Amino acid sequence: MSIMDQLPEQLRKQMTGELLLSVKTDLLPDGRFGEQWLAVTDRDIRIWQKDGSPAMKFAVSELKAARAVGAVGGGTLLVDTLDCPVVIARYTAAMTPVFNFAAKLISALAKSEELPVLSERDIPKQCPTCGNPLHEGTNVCQLCMNSGKAAARMLRYAKPYKGQLAVAACMLILTTLVELVPPYLTKVIIDDVLQARNLGSTLLFLILGLGVTTLMLSAMQTVRGYIGVWVGSKLMGDLRKDIYGSLMRLSISFFDRRQTSQFIGRVNSDSEAMRQFMTDGVVFVCGESLRIVAIFVIMLSLDWKLSLFALLPVPVMIAVSMTIWPKIGRRWYQQWRSIFRLNTLVGDSLQGIRVVKAFGREREEMTRYANANVEVVRNNIRMEGLWQFMFPAFNFIAGIGTLLIWFNGGNKVLHEDMQLGVLMALVAYLGMLFGPLQWVSQMINWASNAMAAAHRVFEIMDTPSEVPEANRPVPLGTIQGMVRFDKVTYGYEKHHPVLKEIDLQVKQGEMIGLVGHSGAGKSTFINLICRFYDTDEGDIYIDGISIRQISQSDLRKQIGVVLQETFLFDGSIADNIAYSKPDASPEEIMRAAKIANAHEFIVRLPDGYDTRVGERGHKLSGGEKQRVAIARAIIHDPRILILDEATASVDTETEQQIQEAISRLIQGRTTFAIAHRLSTLRNADRLVVLDHGKIVEVGTHEELLGKEKGFYRKLVDAQKELSQIKGVEG
Amino acid sequence: MSGRYDIRLFKPEEIYFSRGKGGVLQGVVDGKPYEELVIFRTFPFRYASEYISVRTTGGEELGIIRDIAELSAECAAELDKELQFRYFLPKVHRVASVKFKSDLWIWELETHLGETRLTMRNLHEHLQFPGGNRIVLTDMHGKRCEITDWHILDAHSRRQLEDVL
Ligand SMILES: Nc1ncnc2c1ncn2[C@@H]1O[C@H](COP(=O)(O)OP(=O)(O)O)[C@@H](O)[C@H]1O
Ligand SMILES: [Mg+2]
Fold first, then answer.
1. Contact with chain A for residue B163, Cβ under 8 A
2. What is the pLDDT of residues A176-189, one digit of tens each?
3. Which GO cellular component terms, listed alphabetically, does the Swiss-Prot or TrEMBL entry include (chain A) (predicted)?
C-alpha cells in the first residue's frame, strides 16, 4: 500500500477494496489552482472534490490503460476506458512523478499485471513545517532554514586570522585614543598659554607633544593598514578558492542551464565585495563606534549641556539610514544584474565570434551590446545618484548640530561663561564626531553590496549537487566491467523523458554499439553511465553495485570517454595526454600516443610533445585532436570505455586510423560506442538500436540485417544509398 | 502535393475540434475523425494563439493552424481551453508582495487561475523578459507564471515590481 497523502476518514469509509494509492492533486479539472482527491484500490478508481463530494468513479474492469500526459508546467492523468479516453486529474509539474506512478499503477491493474512499487524517488518530498516542495537530495527546507545570517557566515572567513585582526584592533583603539589628544592640547594652548600670555617654555613642550602624537598616529596607521591589506588579500584568496571548489562540485546539469563565462566575473567581483566589507567595513565600524563613544565622554566632561546639542541630529541620521538600507541593497542587485546581462552577452558573442563574422553580424551584435550597456549606465546613475544625494544630506544634518553649538557656545564665551579654548575643543571634537557619522552612509553602501555578493556566493555554495555523493560509498577496487540498466527512465526535464524504461545487460569486455537517429538518446544513455545525471526511475549497476552507491571519483577512474567535441586544456600535448595521470613517464605518454596513432603526427610538429594546444595554442585539426583524446583515454586505462561519435568529424582515411587505434583500445574493456557511420560498428558484439528513447532492437550486425522490416536494416539501407550517391559525385 | 518537406497550413474549413465525453480534445481533420488530438504552440512566447501545431497522439503532425481566431468561435474556444491545459502559465493579475526572506525571493501572486506563491533563489536566473513589458517568472520547482504587461498592473503591484526589475 502506498499512500501519498492521507485520505480523510470520511472518504476512506466509502472505499471497499484494498487502498493502493491516495493522492491530492493541486489543480482542478478546469485548470485552476485547487485540490482534488484521487484514490486507487484494487477494484476501482475514485475522484472527490476537496469538500468530499464525489466527482468520478471507474471500476477497474471498465479500463484499458492509463496515461500521464506531460505538458508544459503540468500534466494530465488520462484513463482509456472501453469507450473513450477520459481526463481524470490535472496537476502542476511538481507532482509529475506521483502521477506517472499512478498511471503505471492503474495500467497494471487494468491489464492484471504485477503492480509497480512506489519508490522513494516518486514521492515529491515536502517540508514538514511549511509544506513547500523540497529539492531532491536535501532534507533542509530552503524556506524554513535560516541559513545563518549571511554576515555571520561571512565573518567566519575571518576566523583563521584572529591574531592579526586582534593586533589590528589594538592599533585601532590606540590610534583612536591618540587622535583625541591634539584637540585637547589645542585647548590647553589657547586657554593656558595664548590667552594667559604664558611666555615660558610650556608652548614649546605642548607643540612637541602635538608633534609626537602626530608621528605616532602615522606609524600606527601604517602598521594597521598593512595588516588590513595582508588579512584582506588572504581572505579574498580563501573565498575565491571556496567558490571555485563549490563550482567544481556541482553537477553537469547546473552548467547545462547557465552560461559558464559569467562565473569568471562572479568569482572575482563577489569575493572582492565581501572582502571590502570584512576588512575595511568591520574595522571601520569598530573603530568609528569606539571613537564616537570616546568623543562623547570627553565632550560631556568639557560641557555636558552644550554637548547635548550635538546629539540632536543623531536620531534623524539613524532614521534615514534605516529607511534607505533595503533600497540600496536592491539597487545594488539591480545594478549587478544589468552588468551580469552585459557580461553574458559579451561571453556569448565572443564564444561564437566565428559565426558572428561569418554572417557579418558585427553591427547587430554591437547594437545588442549598446542596448544592454544603456541599461547598465542607467542603473549606475540611479545607484551612484542616490549615493550622491545621501552624502550631502548627512553632511547637512550634521552641520546643524555644529551651528547650534557655535551659537550657544559663542554666546557663553561672549558672556564669559566659558573659555574660548573649551569652545574650540568642542567644535573640533564635534567635527571629528560627525566625520564618522557621515561615513555611515558609505558604510551602508559597502555593507549592502557585500550582502548582495554574499547571497550570490552562498547560493552557489549551498546549491546541492544533483548527483549527490553516496553517504557510505561501496569500495570498488578494480572492476570487471559488467553494466546493467534496470528500467531506466530519464529526462533532462522531469516531465519530458528522453530515455524510457531502458533494460540492458552488458557482459564484461563486451562492445556495444548504440545506433539510432540523431536525438534518439544515445548520448544521454552514456551520460547516465558516467553519472553526469541521475536516473529519474530505475537504476544502473556496475558489477552489480548501483552507481549511486559508488563514490564518483572511483567511478570516473573506471570510465574513459572520447567524445565528438574534443576539449583540450591549455597546456602541452603531453600534459593533455597525461591529464588523468600527471605522473606518467614520457615513455608511457609516447606509448599511449602510438596506440592512438598520434605519435607520428606529434613528432613531426616543430615542438613535438611540448606543442602548446588549447584555447590559446596551436590549432590541431579535428582528427588530430581526436587522436590526442584517445591517447588520453588510453593512459587512463579504464575498464569501461565510452566513444561518442569519436570519428564523426574526420575523413575516411583518418577514420580508419582512428578506428585502428580504437580497436586496440577496446581490447578487454567493456565498450559503448556511438558512431555515425554504421560500418564502424560492425565489430560490435551487439548493437542496440534506440528510437525516441526506447530500445527497439538488440542483436549483432548480421542478425539485425536479417530482419526484413527491421529498424537497423532501414538505417543501413539509407546510408548505403547515400554513400552510393556520394560515390557517383566524388 | 507539396510533399512531406513542406509545412501544411490548415484552411479553417479543413478542421473541426470539439471536446470528447471524457474531456479530451478530439477533432475531424480532412474529414477523418480523431478520438484524441494534441496541440502544440510553435512559438509559445511570441505567438500564444497563432501557429498551433496539431498532432496525433503518435506524434505525427497533421498541420498548423495559422491563427485560432480564423476558426469558428466554437472550435477556437475549445482550442483556447486546451492550450491553457497544455501550457500551464497562469496570468498574473496582481502582485500581492515580493519579499526577500532567508535567502529566498517569495512572490505572492494572484493569477487568473487562482492565488499562488513562487519561490526563487535569485532573480537573475528566474525572470525572463521575452520582449515588450512581458515577464515570465519561473520558480525553483519549475512552476511558471506570466505577467503580460507589467505597466498595466495596478499601482500596488507596480510598486512591488519596481524594486526588483
Ligand atoms: N543538456 C540537455 N538539456 C536538455 N535536453 C537535452 C540535453 N541534451 C540532450 N537533450 C535532448 O535529449 C534528446 C536526446 O539527445 P541525445 O542523447 O544527445 O541524442 P543523440 O542520440 O543524438 O546522442 C534530444 O531531444 C535533445 O534535445
Ligand atoms: Mg549525441
1. yes
2. 788 888 888 888 88
3. plasma membrane
